[in-house]
Amino acid sequence: MKRRARDSDQIGFAMTSFVDVVFSLLIFFVVTARFVPPEMRVPVFLSASGRATVENVPTRPFLMEVYAEDEDGAVVSYANRPYNVRDKSNMEALGKELEEYRQRNTDKDGNLLADARAIVAPGDSVIWEHVITVIDLAKTLKIPVGMRTGG
Predict the structure, then answer these.
(1) Which CATH number fits the domain 60-147, given the four candidates 3.40.920.10, 3.40.50.2300, 3.30.420.270, 3.50.50.60?
(2) Who has greater pLDDT, 141 or 52?
(3) What is the DSSP string of 80-143?
(4) pTM
(5) What is the tens place of the pLDDT at every residue in 28-41?
(6) For the chain, which terminal residue's Cβ has fewer other Cβ atoms within 10 angstroms, N or C?
C-alpha cells in the first residue's frame, strides 16, 4: 500500500519570528556599539629604508633618544644628559636645549635652516605616549621632527 504525502503533513519554518529576532539583535548591537575615534596622525619624516643614513640625515640634527626607565616612565637622552619625561623641570630644561638649538640654526631673517630638525629615536620598550610628548615639545617650538627607526 502506497502512502501519499499530504499537504498538512509538511512542517514549515516561521520566518516572521526569525526576522523579528534578527532585527532586534541588529538594533541592539547598533545602539550599544562604541565607535572608536581615529588616532591622530603625527607628521614625522622617515627615511625610505626605515634607517637613517648619511645621505638623508640633516647636517644639524638634534638627536633625542627615548628609552624606557621603568614600566610607565621614560628618559630622553640628549648629548649624554638624561631628561625624565615625567619630571616637568626636566622637560622644561630639554625645551630650553631645543630653543637654543633653534636659535643656533636660524638664519639672519629668523627662519629655521632647511636641514635643521629634531630626530627622535625611540627604544624598543618605550611607551609611545612619552615619544609623542617629546615630539610635541619640538613641535611647539616649530622644529620639524624626524624619526629614526630600527637599531
Answers:
(1) 3.30.420.270
(2) 141
(3) TEEEETT-HHHHHHHHHHHHHHHHHTB-TTSPBPTTEEEEEEE-TT--HHHHHHHHHHHHHTT-
(4) 0.58
(5) 999 998 877 766 66
(6) N
Q: Which of 39-43, 91-95, 107-111 has the lowest mean pLDDT?
A: 39-43
**Centroid of chain to Cα 73:** 17
Grid cell listed for 34: 562604541
Contacts for 56 with CB less than 8 Å, ≥ 6 apart: 47, 48
Edge-to-edge, what's the strand order for the sheet holding 81-84?
81-84, 74-78, 60-68, 116-122, 145-147
The backbone region for 112, taken as left when phi is positive above 0, alpha when psi lies in -120 to 50, beta otherwise, is beta
What are the structural domain ranges in the chain?
A: 60-147
- Over residues 121-132, the pLDDT tens digits come to 888 888 888 888
